[in-house]
Amino acid sequence: MSYYPPVGFHFKVQVNDLGPNDHDIRFTEVGGLSREMATEEIAEGGENRFIQKYPLRAKYPELVLKRGLLLNSAVWDWMRECIEDYQITPKNVDVILLNENHDPLMTWHLANAYPTKWSITDLNANSNTVVIETLQLYYQYFTVNKSS
Prior knowledge:
globular, Phage_T4_Gp19, Glycerol acyltransferase, CHP02241
């Protein structure tokens, strides 16, 4: 049996504890799913050829979500409450990679996420593109579940 890597365009994003809205799971782009080990560099006394590098903790960049501007959105309301009203309510977010039958193939569970930035593309009368909104989320960490 041959193995084919999954496609990167069949996914959905769910912000848990928000009302169900089929449009709120549709994003065109997800960025920032990575982790790295933060390290501390220490020069060793008397040894000038190299430095010691010690592991500290895992680091996670902020998640960046992009989609066409959605006017009636629970995600938008949550973002507005967090950024404008300063009523920060962290929520768990699931980024779900889907297979050809629309079943979960892999799920990244992001813990305690909240919006830190929202923006839209520039409005330009000389362009015929749709307005894209970008939402940036801070999260503490993520875990991964593989369904297969």
